[in-house]
Structures are given as C-alpha cells and as structure tokens.
Amino acid sequence: MGPDDEHTRPDGVDDLTVEALGNISEALEAVEIARGHLYTFHRLSGTADFTLGKGVQQLREAGHDELADRFEKELVGRNVLEGRWTFQIVEEYDDGYYSLFKSLEQVARDTLVEGRRHLYEAELKEDRRTHDRPGHEARPDV
User: Fold this and answer.
1) How many domains, the chain?
2) Which of 9, 68, 76, 82 qualifies as a cystine partner to 59, CB 3.0-4.6 A?
3) Three-state SS for 86?
4) Residue 82 domain-assigned?
5) Predicted local confidence at residue 142, as pLDDT
6) What is the mean pLDDT of each run of 10 residues along the chain (142 residues)?
7) Within-domain flag for 1
C-alpha cells in the first residue's frame, strides 16, 4: 500500500513544482520555529520584568530606597523596543509577516496541487522506505 490520496501529487504536476512547494513548506517551518522563539522571548521578557519587580521590592525592604527607585522608574515596565512591549511585537509579527506567509503558502498549494500538503516529503518517504518491511509502512493501518 502506498501513500493516501492527500499525499499523492495530482495528475500533470511536474517535479519542479513539487520541489518548489517543498521549499516553501520548509521555509514556513522555519518561520514557525522563529515565531515560537518570538513567543519564548515574549514570555521570558515578562518573567524577567516580574522577577525584577520582586528584586526591587526586596531592595526597598532592605533599605535601599534610592536604588530601588531608580530601577522602578527606569526599568520596571519599560518598553523593550520603542513604544512596544513584547505582546505588541508578537501581534505585529502574527498579523503581518506570519499571516501573509501562511496565506500565500496556502494559495500556492490550493492553486498548484489541490491544497495537498507535504507532497515532496511524501514522495521522499516513498523513495527511502523499504517496501513490505515492518516499520516502513506508507501510512498507518486504519
């Protein structure tokens, strides 16, 4: 048994088209990882700000009011980029570059291969697997 219909190229689709869509898909995967790192940056920056606030409060309790005041006025709650906290950076990325990339990738698949995903990888799997060998099945036994 080979791959299911969703992972088989439609008739008339050439190798270069499948390869191009594979590269676009690979680029989208990199964008997804970058987006994850951006969310990690967002979370770590927020954690740092709240932990800093705790440290500033402890400085104040220890009698270091002048230094605590400086941290509080200059750093606690400060923008990480001009005019932006990290949630604003994440939103701008999601609403701009990320959503456009996802949309255009979907348009390419819809236009060229009836919306099918991972055709390049499915064909690579067919080439590399050992047919009729346990652990090398084309798809789950449903």
Assistant:
1) 1
2) 68
3) helix
4) yes
5) 57
6) 89 97 98 98 98 98 98 97 97 98 98 96 92 90 68
7) no
CB of 22 within 8 A of CB of 123? no
Sequence letter at residue 67: L
CA angle in degrees (0–180, nearest 5) for 74-76-81: 80
pLDDT for 138: 87
- AA letter at 88: Q
In a domain, 4, yes or no: no
Is residue 62 in a domain? Answer: yes
Cα–Cα distance measured from residue 140 to residue 120, given in angstroms and rounded to the nearest whole number: 19
d(CA 124, CA 111): 22
Q: Are 7 and 112 in contact (CB under 8 A)?
A: no
Residue matched to tokens 């992972």: 7
Q: What is the pTM of this model?
A: 0.86
